[in-house]
Amino acid sequence: MSLKQVYITNTSVFLPNDPVSNDDMELYLGYINEKPSKSRKIVLRNNGINTRYYALTKEGKPTHTNAQMTALAVKSLFAANPEEIKKVELLACGTSSPDQMMPSHGVMTHGWLPETNAIEVVSPSGVCCAGMHAFKYAYMAVKTGDVKLAVATGSERFSGSLVSNVFEEEAQKLKELKKNPYIGFEKEFLRWMLSDGAAAFLLSDKQNENGLSLRVEWIEGVSYANEMETCMYMASEKLPDGTLKSYMDFTPEEIISKSILSIKQDINLLSNNIVPLGGKRIKEIFERKGHTAEDVDYFLPHISSEFFKSKIFEIMELYGTGIPYEKWFLNLSSLGNVGACSAYLMVDELFHSGKLKKGEKILLLVPESGRFSYMYAMLTVC
Known about the structure:
Blueprint: E1 7-14, E2 20-21, H1 25-29, H2 40-47, E3 51-52, H3 66-77, E4 90-95, H4 105-111, E5 120-122, H5 130-143, E6 149-156, H6 164-177, H7 182-191, E7 197-204, E8 214-223, E9 232-233, E10 236-238, E11 244-246, H8 252-257, E12 264-265, H9 267-289, E13 298-301, H10 307-318, H11 332-335, H12 342-351, E14 361-368, E15 373-381
Parallel strand pairs: 4-5, 4-6, 13-14
Antiparallel strand pairs: 1-7, 1-8, 2-3, 6-7, 8-15, 9-12, 10-11, 14-15
Helix pairs in contact: 3-4, 9-10
């Protein structure tokens, strides 16, 4: 079997509503106990985010589901020729914030796309790497000749879990018990980090006849869950031994009182491990494939906060894979941390920027703090 070349021939995004400034965040997410947050400015000062998007009204009411946003991003791929959507044979949709546990996010997105045919649909789950897993599935399907045209998506709708009524009960409980609100901070820390959006790639075994395409050279992933305990989690509680207790093993009352359905993150575990493990793998890939930092024209790392930018630079320098800042391309400050969608958002902005020249190489890095997983990809402009 001869393997095909795989090209990204178009990219698109859907960002809900208007951009939300730092000062306006609580107008959408609400105030906890009717008071402005004390941690918001501290977290924002470190994460470098200036604007983000929420699928919410200023009253905190939802305006879009995750599946709706994803479908709108897919439709945008075919804005110039809507009939072309009927040629899609595969839809791969990655997210860490599906609208429901069942059915899958992918088939719910497909349900908002009546213009398509009956096609294969897959729904990688997880955290930030989920979008890259969808990308890799679509890439492999095209590369093996299983399909000729595929769509991969990454999306998130975090805002529904960030609104104030999700936080108020636990904040009040901690206040009454006069405890150090460490878990409360872990939740509120994420409250100022996460935002909503969807994006899509169109993958084909033929490059564009007119205009640029991005040839997918390779996509690789790695998980360190065999040696690392859980760092970021939802619908569970982390026990003293590092294991997780599922939401299914709590009573309905405990699910509410213990805030089981909220997103939490072990900040110390994150800070000590997320960058070193990711840098280690880049070194291994570069050595195996014969790459050097000079081969890279654009470096697109998904970072949740500007805090990690210098840390990534330093560890890559340490491993001999350092890429100068002038080659970095980020849009965290304007779009926020959109999890499984973030790599798509960076590629989309660069693809439509007018900056790219044929022959240039783009390196993607997506870390995931769930249990320390990473995805990497190399694209060539052609």
